[in-house]
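Take the subject:
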Amino acid sequence: MFQKASNGRPDSVAQYKYYKAHFWDDVNFKDDRLLRTPFFADRVKRYFDRVILQVPDTISVEIDRMMSQCVPGSDMYKFLLAYFMPTYEQSKIMGFDRVFCNLVDKYVRTGLAKGVYDEKTAQKIIERVDILKPLLLGSQAPDLLMIDTVNSKAVNKMGFDTAKTSQSVTKLYYDNVQKLTPLFTTLYGTKAKYTVLVFWDVDCGHCKTEMPKLVDAYKELKKKYDVKVFCVYTQHEYDKWRKYLIENKLDDFINVWDPVHINNIKTKYDIFSTPVIYLLDKDKVIKAKRLSVEQVPELIKALDAQEKK
């Protein structure tokens, strides 16, 4: 019988703790035969989706605890690892990619995932995590050295707009590095309490829908908060980009692109589609990522209120 809480009702916290502590009673993770039962896979999913706290570090601890009860290399061990890896790599919940990174660091990098992934696949997974880790919530966003609309013509005159190979671009960069350095607009040089970092493309249909929304949202945000939009064009058609900025009145944003080809934007920020929106604090720490435009004002409001408390 559970003790009662101060309101006279059964203590729900004590009930939860008891339920969680006894969830796996009589389940032997060393017994591979469980994999052939109709309940086991659903029970694992229910435990990780509904029973434990939905916090990345808590999930990682629970996974390690479960894996430690298996025989290394057993069918149970392989099944669980093969279940957890894609589940948290593909999770739509912001921040849960940290669980995937923790799994790869502990099991794939160390060779403990042998039998689940071959060497070639394991290396690809590690490379994927090497991209994701600098972009985890709470990490300082990688800096960007970009060119704004004012300095674009000067950069193009150096020959970057006609360079065809990576070797020719590299040579142009080192031949002109002293001229280029003062022309860069950097992410870290953007002074604001909040920075909305946006990656977009003029020809992207979804961007054409979202960017006007961001213009309207920013007009309201800047009335209340110290916020700037660092707006990164991901392609290299200057005239088309410039025309779009003028026609759609994106002049309040810090509009930049990378005609010098030194940022490797798509890999550095994991840009496989556009638009992609990050929210950074004054120290350029990632507070949120892959946001919709509608979420940006809500999160800034919530972060500001949290800071005031």
